[in-house]
Amino acid sequence: MVDASTKKTLSDIPVLKTKAGPRDKELWVQRLKEEYTTLIKYVQNNKEADNDWFRLESNKEGTRWFGKCWYIHNLLKYEFDVEFDIPITYPTTAPELALPELDGKTAKMYRGGKICISDHFKPLWARNVPKFGIAHAMALGLGPWLAVEVPDLIEKGIVKHKEQSESN
């Protein structure tokens, strides 16, 4: 089941139309334009809702993505690097989002800092090919993962705010 807030977020993210991956040359260029348009709209929506929580950019080919994401907990901002590659079989296969600096700090993560979103997100992604894209992966994958895992890691003392880390 998807809650009302998630439904609202999803309804405000445009869906993509082009079913193309990195191997599809001209169609990939079209898909990439759709990805950027959708990401820009999602970021604008987040800013309007005072929920700005990530920045992303890609290499020239649009196959490697990187940036920052952050989570506010007890009025402190915890910032992490985020990165992922577009799979060759994209958009049939969802990208595996990674937070490398958290690698090995939680059971809900694979080697290399790839977050575990398979149980809930991957079936939803599969039902929505080619409509879902990178913005959807951020909204339905990374966002909820951060909301569950980061507070837990902070409470356990595994993740410390950078000001606390510098003073120790």
Q: Please give the radius of gyration in angstroms.
A: 16 Å
Unreliable segments (pLDDT under 50, ≥5 consecutive)? none
Query: What is the percentage of strand-forming residues?
Result: 15-25%
Sheet with the most strands: spatial strand order: 1-2-3
Span from first to last CA? 43 Å
Structural class: alpha+beta
Task: Specify the overall morphology.
Answer: globular
Mean pLDDT: 92
H/E order of the elements? Answer: HHEEEEEHHH
Characterize the main sheet: 3 strands, antiparallel
Tally of extended strands?
A: 5
Specify the number of helices.
5
Helix content: 25-40%
List keywords for this structure.
single chain, 168 residues, alpha+beta, 5 helices, 5 strands, 17% strand, globular
Task: Tell me about this structure.
- This protein is of the alpha+beta class and 168 residues long.
- It has 5 helices and 5 strands, in the order ααβββββααα.
- It has helices at residues 4-11, 25-48, 121-127, 134-155, 162-167, and strands at residues 54-58, 64-73, 76-85, 109-110, 114-115.
- The strands form 2 sheets. It has a 3-stranded antiparallel β-sheet with strand order 1-2-3.
- The longest helix is centred in the first third of the chain and has 24 residues, at 25-48.
- The chain starts with a helix and ends with a helix.
- GO terms for molecular function: UFM1 conjugating enzyme activity.
- One of its GO terms (biological process) is protein K69-linked ufmylation.
- This is Ubiquitin-fold modifier-conjugating enzyme 1.
